[in-house]
């Protein structure tokens, strides 16, 4: 059903159905979760129906694929917002580095707009390659993109500091320390991380595709 809604361009409904499906899956062994996207389709068939086992090891990767496809439509349709960009970065960690080309397109989008505000970033992003790319974006060499991605907004941090001199330096130090903490988390189970994201942030995901 989610596929039908995707073809109709109803991405909020796709997201809702996919997240409902994920919450109802029973197989909880993350070691079995692999991408089952390599499906053989008979040649010469313009239309086909693909059936899969009702197991998390096959359904979860397909759900991620639908969410990524829906967010991609949103991001590159001219109706992009920072929330959709942030959600996409988190999901692209799953089955990394399969979607590196799409990830670099997202990075170019962020660089072109000159900023990114997404305060859930460090809750869910642990991929070293992605962390390095974001750190590069913030540097002079990477375009000095304004990144407001700390758990507490950098704007709030700046407002809370009583001495204005050195505020930017303090924010930079906070960013550097947080990046270092994330690198230490790089061995965490990505499946569990993404699964937690999809269950905990369900309303935000649906909202980002509704706007």
Automatic annotation (TrEMBL):
Indicate whether Nucleus appears among the record's keywords.
yes
As for subcellular location, the record says: Nucleus
For this record, the Gene Ontology CC terms, alphabetical, are: integrator complex
| Cited InterPro entries | Int_cplx_su10
The answer on whether this UniProt entry bears the keyword Repressor reads no
Alphabetical list of Pfam families matching this protein: INT10
Example of a GO biological process term: snRNA processing
Q: Which UniProt keywords apply?
A: Nucleus
- Per its UniProt record, what PANTHER family does this chain match? INTEGRATOR COMPLEX SUBUNIT 10 (PTHR16055)
Q: Please state which protein family the record places this protein in.
A: Belongs to the Integrator subunit 10 family.
Q: What is this protein called?
A: Integrator complex subunit 10
Q: Identify the species of origin.
A: Mytilus edulis
